[in-house]
Here is the input.
Amino acid sequence: MATSDVNQGSQDDDVLQVAANWLQSGKKVALATVVSSWGSSPRPPGSQLAVAEDSTFVGSVSGGCIEGAVVTEALAVMESGETKVLEYGVTDELAWEVGLACGGQVKVFVEAVQE
Amino acid sequence: MKTAMLDQILQDQEAKTPVALATELATGDQALIYYDKAAGALADKPGVLEAARRAIQDDKTGTVKLDVGEIYFQTFNPPLRMLIVGAVHIAQPLSRMASAIGYDVTVVDPRQSFASPERFPGISLNHEWPDDGLRELDIDRRTAVVTLTHDPKLDDSALGVAIRSEAFYIGSLGSRGTHAGRVERLKNEGFTESEISRINGPVGLNIGAISPAEIAVSILGEVTDHLHAKEKKAAA
Here is the structure.
């Protein structure tokens, strides 16, 4: 099953605090969260990325492979207000698509944080 | 997610209240679930409340397939704790590094001149005799205990409490010879072999550590190894 022991030691607890600070300063914010991962994906479920409307972000959902694509999706979710589930798999070197060089698979839930 | 829900999670973390955030992936519906209460419509769906409470209990975060659909549970438990007995030199880098990793650190030492805020800025200090101090701190299965004094009066009294607790890691500084003497003394005090074998001694991974900071790294390496032992086994 796609669950993982996530203790505070490996949890990105500062990410939520930064998200709250951004909201307080009037910025729009979206959260992206790893909800399941398989294979050699580098970040376990619970890993999070907070994105502000100016594209600045904190945290991570991979070793850096998919953050760019997730930020773009997060900006769209911020506007639409609709949640989204993204899935990324192994990189096909022949295709110009975003993937995980590590060979893992990851599912990411993206949501706006709003009133 | 509602802003109010985010604020609530942050407040719960501050108050060290265990909570799980449940999210239905298909709809984005959410609930905050505690041991004794819940907020959010998702908590009313069959199976969600029970699965969330199990997730908190097991300290697990991940997606679970329930009859109602795929639900993601993110648990927010209070930080792991490290109780360091002996406010000696090694305790200084160890307490700083353990804090950086995310541990809630308390240094226990009845010698107030050793366990002083000047030597341990920002670290909780307990000045009780180690056995009383550790009992007071209520060791659970998310706690690591490390004794560093070398002094049998202090270390042994702490270890006697630690080896009968649920601590996920117990380590004791000292050479092989020192540790053999410690094992002998604990045996004579009536502790069983399986209790005594829970003590990691000499403490830390063998990485050739020499300086206090390096010894702290070797201890934290061993603590991390114990923390994730189950996952490591599952992945092998």
Observations:
- The interface with chain B takes residues 1-11, 13, 16-17, 19-20, 23, 31, 33, 35-36, 44-46, 82-83, 85, 107, 109, 111-115 of chain A (CB under 8 Å).
- Residues 90 and 103 of chain A are 5 Å apart (CA to CA).
